[in-house]
Amino acid sequence: MHLSGAVLLFTYVVPPAWALDAYGAAPAGDPSADVPPFVILAVMLFHCVGFHALVQVPSGLVGTRLGLHHGGMVTYASALAIAGLLTALALPVALGVEDAGELMQLWADFMVRGSLGLAGYVWMTRRSRENSKT
Predict the structure, then answer these.
(1) At what angle do helices 2-11 and 100-133 cross, to 10 degrees?
(2) 3 state DSSP class of 132
(3) How far apart are CA 83 and CA 88, in angstroms?
(4) Measured between alpha carbons, how far is residue 96 from residues 12, 38, 54, 91, 106 in Å?
(5) What gap in Å lies between CA 30 and CA 86, rounded to an integer?
(6) Per residue in 57-70, pLDDT tens?
(7) Which residues lie closer than 8 Å to 100 by C-beta, 6 or more apart?
(8) Residues near 82 by Cβ (< 8 Å), separated by ≥ 6?
(9) Rounded to whole angstroms, what are the CA distances from 119 to 8, 27, 78, 96, 115?
């Protein structure tokens, strides 16, 4: 799971659209700016840790378990399906998203970032299982 968390963290090198919008909302020297830049970075880190704990870890573990005696693609597809469901359930609860358009945009952003981390996790578990058989 450390690999999937690290990959997820590295995907935030390209910030989400909402973070770019929040960062550019007020000029740099404006004293009336509501959100200082470090708060935006802290929120992005919170999103990363929260998504990893609520979605990536459970979907990786259950997906690996479901695809135990199948190929890597079945394991990855199972993990992605569970991640998609958990993300769809967690976004309205955790972030309070009510608008369907905003929900789909956030869901897609989290799924793209999460799928890369899950791919790394599935690859690592498959490799460790193959190496333990020899």
Answers:
(1) 140
(2) helix
(3) 8
(4) 21, 22, 15, 7, 12
(5) 39
(6) 898 888 888 877 77
(7) none
(8) 58, 59, 62, 63
(9) 11, 39, 11, 28, 6
DSSP letter string, 63-100: HHHHTTTS-HHHHHHHHHHHHHHHHHHHIIIII----H
Query: What are the tens digits of pLDDT across the range 10-50?
Result: 776 777 776 766 666 656 666 656 666 777 778 888 888 88
Q: Whole-angstrom Cα distance, residue 50 to residue 112?
A: 16
Residue with tokens 């997906």: 63
Say how far apart CA 102 and CA 16 lie, in whole Å: 13
- Residue 90 tokens read as 């967690």
| Secondary structure percentages of the chain, helix, strand, coil, to 5 | 80, 0, 20
17: tokens are 């659209």
What are the distances in angstroms from CA 73 to CA 3, 42, 115?
18, 34, 13
Whether 73 contacts 86, CB under 8 Å: no
pTM for the model stands at: 0.74
